[in-house]
Amino acid sequence: MLKYLFFIGFIFSSSASASASASASASASASANASDECDYTLPLGSIVACYENKNEESDAVLNKSYNDLKKLVMGSPYDDETKGVYWSNIVKSQKNWIQMRDSQCLAKGVFFENGTDLQRIEIKKCLFLSTEIRVLYLNEEILFIKNLP
């Protein structure tokens, strides 16, 4: 029994490690772009503004990818029921992702004094990076739908 539990634990930690590695890779890619665009030598208010702008831009890209996916799915040759079930699950996934992203980013902010620019920077940066990763996911879904038989 103990060997079985150890084996299950090993498999779980291996798959979690692979998943974390893929996520870290995507995050590192997005993070490299974030560092280049928000100059930490500027005053804190300017850094906050930079991440606010980046959030607006990434939200626009996210909305475009989301709408592109919807158009692609709804225009696909599959029956209406299949498309409806797929799309309702995507909508549910998107709502859950927004809640998760917001909670995770607010959690990061608690390590900084409430209402400070440092807190706003950390939260805005987290929102931006998380949104960039979600865009990658939606774009992968677009490729998935395009490559269906």
Automatic annotation (TrEMBL):
Keywords: Signal
Organism: Vibrio cholerae
Keyword Acetylation (UniProt): no
Taxonomic superkingdom: Bacteria
Domain Lysozyme inhibitor LprI-like N-terminal: 47-138
A Pfam family: LprI
Official protein name in the record: Lysozyme inhibitor LprI-like N-terminal domain-containing protein
Coiled coil regions, renumbered to chain: none
Signal sequence extent: 1-20
